[in-house]
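Q: Metalloendopeptidase, please. Structure only.
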Amino acid sequence: VQERSAIIGDNYRWPHIIPYVLEDSLEMNAKGLILKAFEQYRLKTCIDFKPWEGEKNYISVFKGSGCWSSVGNRQHGLQQLSIGAGCDRIGTIQHEFLHALGFWHEQSRSDRDDYVSIVWDRIQAGKDHNFAKYNDSTSDFLNVPYDYTSVMHYSQNAFKNGTEPTIVTNIPDFMDVIGQRMDFSDYDLQKLNRLYNCTSSLSFMDTCSFELANVCGMIQSSDDNSDWQHLSQVPAGPTTDHTNMGECEDSGYFMHFNTSAGAEGSTALLESRVLYPKRGFQCLEFYLYNSGHESDRLYVWVREYTAAHPNGTLRLIQEIKGSPANYWQLHHVSLNITSKSRVVFQGVKGGGLSNGGLSIDDINLSETQCPHHVWHIRNFTHLLNTSPAGQEGRIYSPPFYSSKGYAFQVSLYVNGTADSPFNLAIYLHLISGANDDHLQWPCAWQQGTMILLDQHPDIRQRMSNQRSITTDTQKLDSSSKYFWGRPAEVGATATFPNGTTFMRGPGSGTSAFLTHQRLRRRDFIKEDGIYILLTMEDISHLLSTQPSASPTVVTNTSNVCPENPCENNGVCIVVDRAPVCRCPAGDNWWYMGEKCERKGSAQENTVIAVSSSIAVFVGMLIVTVTTAVCLKKKYRKEKERGERLALEK
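A: Structure for Metalloendopeptidase:
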C-alpha cells in the first residue's frame, strides 16, 4: 500500500461506528484523554466509537514505543494504535486516529513543494522516510487546499539533527503555525467528512451568532408582553456584539431585551428552533451582557413536547442573576432533555432603575458535558506586556471543588517559566479544603482538564488548547512524599487575596502549554480576556478497561497469557484457547514471527520482492527451455515413426 494524504480504496474505510479496546497497558491519563478525543470526533464529524464486542475488525489502543498507527482499516482483526509515554495530548490522539481512519501526513502530499521545503541534510539519520512525497497517481487530498494548520502536519523541528528546522514554509508567516496539536483544523474536518460522507456531526445541535435577520430560526413567544430585539449596539452597552467585536463593518448583531422601559415584571421569551436530542445530556453555552439592573433576571427553560402535551410544557433549568458589567460574560447551562424540545431564554425586568438591559450572543448547544468551572482572566494584554517570566509572573485561579469534594487551584505563568519564556505555562494544584478529613489520600485517579478556550462563535470550528493531569497515588515528590497527598501534609502555606491562609500542594502541568505566537493567532484573547475551562472528574472506572471475552477471541486477562511470551511490545491474546502474539507495526515497519521476534520493513520487502521476482523468472525460463526441448524430442520421434510407417506400406 502506498502512502498518500488519504488512502485510496473503500476496503480501507472503517464503519462509521468503530470498535475499540483500551488496553490496560495505557497510562490512566491517556485513557481519559482518548475518551475526550472521541467526544471531539462526535462533535465535529459523523464518526463514532464503541467498546469492542467481538466485531471482526477493531482498534486496540495500547502503550507502545511512542505514538503511531497503521493507516486505514487493514482488515486484520486486531489493529494496534500506540499512545505511548508523552503522547497524552488530545491533538496527538486525534492525529493517530486520523491515521487509523485513512490519512497520511499533510507534508506527504504531492503538491507539498509549492508550500514547504524539506531540508534533507538537517534530518536525523534513518528518518528520511518520514518526509517522503507521493505523486498524483498515489495521492488523493480530496480537493482540499494544502493546510499549514492541519493536526496532521509536522512541525518545523520534526526529526531535526541539530538546531535548524527540517521544514521551512514557503510563506514565512506559517513557520510557527505548522505542527499544531490543539485540535482538528477546518480542512482536517473537511477532508474527513468528505472521505466518510458525513453530512452532519453526531453531538452538535445548534449554533447562532445572530448575524442573519432570521436569527437562526429562533422565534418570539406569544406568551409574553415584550420582545427581544435584533441589534448591533445599545447606548448603555454593549457597543459591539461578541462575535466580531466591532471589527467587521455592517455586521455584528446580538439579541437584546430592553429593561430601561416598561413595568416591573415585563417579560420576553426567545425560543430556539425545535430540537431532537439523542443522548439525554446537553451543554448550552452563550455570552451574556448585563447593562441593566441587578434585579433583572435571565431564565433558561426548555419547552418539551410529548404526546400528552403536544403544545409543549415549560420546565425551568436555571436562573441567571448578577450585577451589571461592562463586558460579555460566558455562561454554561447543563440540560437533560430527552424528547422533542426548544430552549427558551426568558428576560424579566426587575424593580430597579435600568439604563440598558440583557443581551445574548454566540449560542452553542451540543450533546456534550459542560465544564465544571470557568476562570475568566481580564485585562490579559496588560498581563502579557508587564508580567516577567518565572514565578514573579505567575497568577492563581480562585479555589474550586471537584464533584468528589477535592479542592484545587490552577496556576498560570503568563510569560512562561524562567527556562521556557514566551509560552503560557499551566499547572494543577490540590489545595486544602473543607472536605479533606473525609477524602481518600493520596488523591486517586482524578483527572483535571484545563482548556484555554478558542472563542470562535461556532463550537465546531474551535481549536481550543487543553492539557489533562491525572492524580496517581504512587507518584512521589522530590522529598519522597506522596505528590498527591493531603495538602496539609505535603503542601506549602499560601494566602488568598482576602488574606485567608491555606495549604497548596505541588503543581503538575506543562511549561509549554501554548506559545505566544499561537495564542495570538486564534480567538483565545477576546475583549482583552481569556477563559480557562476547568473540569476534575473521577476516572477510576478506567483502571480496568479490558473487554469481556468473546467466543472466538479473548484479550489478556489474569488467567490468560499470565506471562506474556510476546517480544517487542507484542500483545498476547487467545484464539481458540491458544496464546497468539499480535505484533506491533508502523507505517514502514512491522514485527513478525511466533513471538514477534523478527522485524520487517518496506525496504526488506522490496528486496525480497525483487529476489522473488528474479527467482520466478529464472524458474519460468528453465520450465520454458525444458518444455521446448521435450517437445522437440517428441516431434522427432513422431516424425521418425511416421517415416517408418510410410516405408512399411
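A: Brief note, in case it's useful. Residues 400 and 481 are 24 Å apart (CA to CA).
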